[in-house]
Structures are given as C-alpha cells and as structure tokens.
Amino acid sequence: MEEKIVSAAIKSKITNDIYTGRRHSDIIRNHYEEHGQFGPSNSEQGFITSTGRFVNRHEAAEIAFKCG
Predict the structure, then answer these.
(1) Are 54 and 17 in contact (CB under 8 A)?
(2) 9 vs 22: CA distance, rounded Å
(3) Calpha distance 30→66 (Å, rounded)
C-alpha cells in the first residue's frame, strides 16, 4: 500500500510530542485553548502519514505528488 498523508501535525522539538489535526491552524488554536500559548514552543509543522510517520512539509509534498 502506498504511503499517504493523513493529517496535519506539529512536533515539539523540546519534548518530541506530536499534536495532530485537520489543519495546522486547528492544532495551534486547540493548543492555545488548552495551554494558553499559540502552539508548542520551538516546534516544526509537518504531517502524519498512513504509516504513522511524522514528515516535514518537503517530504509531505513528495508523498502527496506521488499519490496524485
């Protein structure tokens, strides 16, 4: 089965926690509502694949283009 992008994600570079959502803006808003700050500090925006892998925007674009 071909790997696909399944959700947006933000990964904290400090704790390695990964937060997921439909869009990055949803993740940021939810994090603010729960923690009082806009997104995890020192973080990287990326995506989660169908294999559960966190990938950055560049890797995600390559996967998305391969899937059509």
Answers:
(1) no
(2) 8
(3) 31
What residue ranges do the domains of the chain occupy?
A: 5-67
22 backbone dihedrals φ, ψ, rounded to 5°: -70, -40
Q: What's the mean pLDDT when you consider all of the chain? A: 90
**b/e for 4-15, b at 16 or more Cβ within 10 A?**
ebeebbbbbeee
Given phi > 0 = left and psi -120 to 50 = alpha, else beta, which region is 39? left
Taking the CA atoms of residue 34, residue 39, residue 42 and residue 48 in that order, the dihedral angle to the nearest 10 degrees is 110
21's tokens:
């959502």
Give 24: exposed, middle or buried? Use CB within 10 Å, 0-12, 13-18, 19+: middle
pTM, two decimals, is: 0.85
